[in-house]
């Protein structure tokens, strides 16, 4: 991922936080994997759904 893409990702995640959504390190990692083409959206959805639920 280029420096420009990384900055754009960080800006998008900051905007998401300002909207009141939680953005974890895992979220950032998942977004980066998508951007790098390491995983498809369908694969990531399956992976996220198989993760244990977080306590709120």
Describe the structure.
This protein is mainly alpha-helical. 68% of the residues lie in helices and 0% in strands. It has three helices and no strands. It has helices at 3-18, 25-36, 41-50. It is flat and about 35 Å long. The N and C termini lie far apart (32 Å).
Low-confidence stretches are none
Tell me the strand percentage band: under 5%
Note the overall shape.
Answer: flat
Helix content: 55-70%
Element pattern in H and E: HHH
Average pLDDT, to the nearest integer?
93
Rg over C-alpha atoms, rounded to the nearest angstrom: 12 Å
List its traits.
single chain; 56 residues; mainly alpha; 68% helix
Compile the SSE list and pairings.
Layout: H1 3-18, H2 25-36, H3 41-50
Quick overview:
This protein is mostly helical and 56 residues long. It has three helices and no strands.
